[in-house]
Amino acid sequence: MEQNDLHQLIEQQAAEQKKTLYAKYGEEAKRCVEENAKARQRRKRMAIHISALAASFLVVAICLTVILTVVSNSDDIIRYSDGEIKTRQTATTLKEYGEKQTDKILYLDWYNTVAVFETLEGYDSNDTVIYIRERFSITTERSVTLVVMNNIYEVNSFERYNSLNESFELSNGVTLTYSIKDNNIEAKFEYEGYKYFLSFCGTTDAEYVKTTVESMFD
Amino acid sequence: MKKLTWLMIAILSLSCIAICCIDSTQTEANAETAELRYYDAPLLSAASIEEIHFTGRVVTQRDTDGGAPLHNSTPGLDNCCGPLAGTNAVAFYDKYYENLIPNYSPYDLDTGTYYMSDYRNTNPVLLELYDLMKCNVGGDGVSEADFKNGLQTYFNKRGLTITYRSAAENKQLNYDTCVEAVRANKVIVLFTTPGHIYDIAGYNNYDVITKMSINGNHIMLAYGFMKRVYYQGSDSRKDYYVRVATGMGDPDNAYYKIDSTNLEAAYVLDVA
């Protein structure tokens, strides 16, 4: 018989028997009661501690969720590291691609004036088109490459366009940044939710770059 | 009896460990002797960026006449660095051997300079080389032998032959051989393991050298050489490069450093 049952057992007896039993087992029953009380107090303290711990975890979890949600919502950028984007040829020109969108997408209207051009799609593992790249090959010595990408995306391989060292304000107020290198110019601007990266091979003529970019807004 | 049992268990365990070690060593040895394959190798953005400031700079550089084609895309095929390098080689030599690409000139007829890329007209070449090089047969991409045999067959079918003349010694690119080849308007094919290419931006009194990683075995064509000598006071530094058609879309101007340690083989493509 469990010791903590002894007191209960005695209590269940008739009054006269209770008296006899307490006389016989009194100390033991008393100890039983005391131990039961202590055990209840221990259980109570443990319950309080566990509750406090659980509450703390809950608070921390809620705080983290809120913080991360706020951060991610305020950021809202989908980032791709190198190698996550592949390219494929497409028969659809950037102009035709833009005509299918609700957003306005700028393009270089050189399709009938340049001997060679090609259009590629940059896509991710879900087959989502992340950017369109169009290259107009005048020759190997002269070419212009235009990449158009929605502002919600960032791709590592275009990071160098964030540190171009010259800037110029176009006639419509759009800021064009560019860098003149040995034999080419890289340039970038943003317009109505899209980033435009340009690479002009075979020229160091910044005026040519500005004129070309201005023509995209015509 | 108990000690004997433990002794036997110990001997058995050691034997198993020894067998496992021998097996893994043999596996590694087998892997090392297996032929290298060259496939899609992602180009990773800047592994490092170096600024070189100088008081003086002398650059000596030359490309093959008209440069070289820089084809870099496929109609949905994977692991195609071999066929792409082959397409660039075919398009390059079409200027000197007519109808390597039928009914198409991959260069501007007036200036003799190559179009950077034009997949609408060169896809048939890529697809034929994909088959001839047995791309993705027996493994990802192509082996060195697959590339050389496939390209040779393409040229043979058109009445020409290629001699692959080594441009490397002890897996080190020979700069003088590259210079001689470029001056003779010949391209060099490079077979590399993971390593780097360089994008070089030259400004008035400093250069910015962006080192980019190619994260896999790769094949590309060299079509130019460049020596950059920097002077800073009494000190000087010399860097030697070959200009390469990487088969990748970006950067347009890419260079491979002569003293790179990831070269497996390099051959001048002598066509006759």
Description of the structure:
The complex is a heterodimer of chains A (218) and B (272). Chain A is of the alpha+beta class and 218 residues long. Chain A has two domains: 3-75; 79-216. Chain A has four helices and ten strands; from the N terminus they run H-H-E-E-H-E-E-E-E-E-E-E-E-H. The radius of gyration of chain A is 38 Å and the shape is rod-shaped. The N and C termini of chain A lie far apart (97 Å). Chain B has one domain (35-271). Chain B has five helices and 14 strands. In chain B, the strands form four sheets. In chain B, strands 3, 5, 8, 11, 12, 13 and 14 form a seven-stranded antiparallel beta sheet that branches. Chain B has a three-stranded antiparallel beta sheet with strand order 2-10-9, with no helix packed on it. Chain B has a two-stranded antiparallel sheet with strand order 1-4. At the A-B interface, strand 2, strand 3 and strand 4 of A face strand 2, helix 3 and strand 9 of B.
The N- to C-terminal Cα distance of chain A equals: 97 Å
Shape of chain B: globular
Main sheet attributes: strand count, strand direction, barrel closure of chain B: 7 strands, antiparallel
Could you describe the largest sheet of chain A, including whether it forms a barrel?
8 strands, antiparallel
- Enumerate the spans of chain B where pLDDT stays under 50 for 5 or more consecutive residues: 28-33
Into how many domains do the coordinates of chain B divide?
1
H/E element order of chain B: HEEEHHEHEEEHEEEEEEE
Q: What count of domains describes the coordinates of chain A? A: 2
Strand order of the largest sheet of chain A: 2-3-4-5-10-9-8-7
The Cα radius of gyration of chain B reads 23 Å
Unreliable spans of chain A are: none
- Tell me what portion of residues of chain A adopts beta-strand conformation: 25-35%
Measured as a percent range, the helix fraction of chain B is 25-40%
**Helical element count of chain A?**
4
CA-atom Rg of chain A in angstroms: 38 Å
Give the DSSP E fraction of chain B (strand runs of 2 or more residues): 25-35%
Helix coverage percent of residues of chain A? 40-55%
How would you sum up the global shape of chain A?
A: rod-shaped
